[in-house]
Structures are given as C-alpha cells and as structure tokens.
Amino acid sequence: MKQMAEDVRAVCTAAPVVPVIVIRNIAHARPLAEALVAGGLPSLEVTLRTDCALDAIAEMAQVPGAQVGAGTLRTPQDVSAAKAAGATFGVSPGATENLLQAVEKEALPFLPGVATAGEAMQLADRGYETLKFFPAEAIGGAKALGSLASPLPDIAFCPTGGISPQNASDYLSLANVICVGGSWVASQSLMDAGNWDKIEALAHAAAGLAR
Ligand code: 3PG
User: Fold this and answer.
1) Which residues contact 77 (CB under 8 A, 6 or more apart)?
2) Whole-model pTM?
3) How far is CA 150 from CA 69, 145, 155, 176, in A?
C-alpha cells in the first residue's frame, strides 16, 4: 500500500482531533506540544507556513508521546525537509503527481487533501484509503462528506477547514470520518498569552469528543 496505510490510520485513530498548528515563535513549540499531549491529543500537524515550522517540528518531535507531522506539504522539497526535521507523517491541501511521487519515494505516511469524489477515487486507485476532506465547511460540510459514505464506503476521511467544537460532532458521527483536523485547540492568542493550561483544557475536551 503506497500510503503506508497502517501508519496513517494510527495517526488518525490516536484521538478524535488532530490539531492544525501554525508556529510563529519557536519558543511556543515545546510547551504547546506538551500541553496538547497532556490533554490527550498526541498526533500534531505543524503547517509549513512559517519560517520556523521545520525547527518547530524538530523541537516538538522530542516531546514524549508526541507524533509530529508536517502540514501544507506542496513540493518534493517540502517532503524531504519535513522528513529531515523529524516529521513522521505528512498532510497536504491537495495532491499532485510530484507530491505523491515524493512521499512515496521518502516512504512518508501521507494524508492527502481532496475536495471531490473524483479526487478521492483517483487516490483510492493509487492505494490511499485515508484522505483529508478540505476545506470541509466551505465545500459542503458534514452533509457533503456524509454523502460520500455510501458510494465510497472504503475511504475514511479527516475533514479539516472550518471545524470547531460546535460542529466537530456533526463530522465525527459520520460513518466515513476517522478524525477531524482543526486549529481551535492551538490558537495564536492563547499561545501568545502563554496560556498552556487553557490549551491543555481545550485539548482534553477535544480528546473526549465521541466518534
Ligand atoms: C488550515 O488549513 O489551516 C486547516 O484547514 C485548519 O483550518 P481551521 O483553522 O479552519 O481549523
């Protein structure tokens, strides 16, 4: 299986929520990872959108219990750099042939983004059975994603984009949802305030969501 399916499933089943993280201050990386793991969210997606993202992955990967992946993968160079930094999985907003070849060459467990049934079918043909549904709320939300369960029963999704404590359960109750991704547990304002206790409490609440 090209995707390293077992590894991707392990990332997605560790907790109901995968935090989507943007680190602008490297000093936030370790206390954030510690708070999220302590709250019960071990799988962490650090987006490659900031200058210190790779350093943040390296730092967070040292936190006991943390499973740190790189998000916003777009190029083969992103894949190599993420893997070198210690990322154990990758996430992308969409899939390109270049990107798929790179993650397959690097044997990086990969959660590629899709927005349509056709994209999901192409990736399933290639051996990818767990996919990110992105940007979930903007492309029809839980109603749209739930509609894919019957025709594509073998594909599991991690919806991401616009998910909050208010609507997470709408997704998690769907038969074809394995977990959800979201940034609400690691907001910039709480990190800037150093409010790790609040972040741990939000993680704890997210970890307790039923699925
Ligand atoms: C993103 O691209 O940043 C993720 O989809 C997270 O989206 P969110 O901030 O709406 O949770």
Assistant:
1) none
2) 0.96
3) 30, 10, 10, 9
Determine contact, residues 89/8, Cβ cutoff 8 Å. Answer: yes
182 Cα nearest atom in ligand 1 = 11
Q: What is the CATH number of the domain that holds 35?
A: 3.20.20.70
Q: Which domain holds residue 26?
A: 2-207
Task: Give the position of tokens 């154990």.
Answer: 88
Structurally, the chain folds into a number of domains equal to: 1
- Residue whose C-alpha is closest to residue 179's, from 32, 35, 43, 33: 43
Pocket lining for ligand 1, CB < 6 angstroms: 20, 134-135, 160-163, 182-183
- Cα 10–chain centre separation: 12
Q: Which atom of ligand 1 is nearest to the CA of 134?
A: 5
Torsion angle, alpha carbons of 105, 113, 186, 210, to 10: -110
The model's pLDDT over 141-199, given as tens digits with 9 standing for 90+, comes to: 999 999 999 999 999 999 999 999 999 999 999 999 999 999 999 999 999 999 999 99
- Closest of 163, 184, 175 to residue 39, by C-alpha: 184
